[in-house]
Amino acid sequence: MSKITYGMVEEIYSLGNLSRRAYGIVAYANAEEDGTATVVASAHDLTSDRRRAERLAVECNLGKLALHHFEDVIEDFLAE
Q1: CA Rg value for the chain
Q2: pLDDT of the chain along its 80 residues, tens only?
Q3: How far are the Cα atoms of 4, 23, 58, 60 from residue 20, in angstroms, in the given order?
């Protein structure tokens, strides 16, 4: 079974002269073991609050979140 590592992703969305920064979460498989960054799941544009997204990634890692619970955690995050 692969170990999942969660990280925050920062993106800039642009339309014409307008742009905004948003943050999401990505799940990497075996990132620490083999040094790759293979994304196995992601949730983009979750919040404009960088600290909130960072906190979510930390909590997912500390809790050793199983990948099959990822969508549930994202739904709960968005419901807050």
Answers
A1: 13
A2: 578 999 999 999 999 999 999 999 999 987 666 667 789 999 999 999 999 999 999 999 999 999 999 999 999 999 98
A3: 29, 10, 24, 25
Q: Is there a contact between 61 and 5 (Cβ–Cβ < 8 Å)?
A: yes
pTM of the model: 0.86
* Cβ–Cβ under 8 Å, residues 74 and 47: no
Positive or negative, the CA dihedral 15, 20, 24, 26 is: positive
Residue 41 region, left (φ>0) first, then alpha (ψ -120 to 50), else beta?
Answer: beta
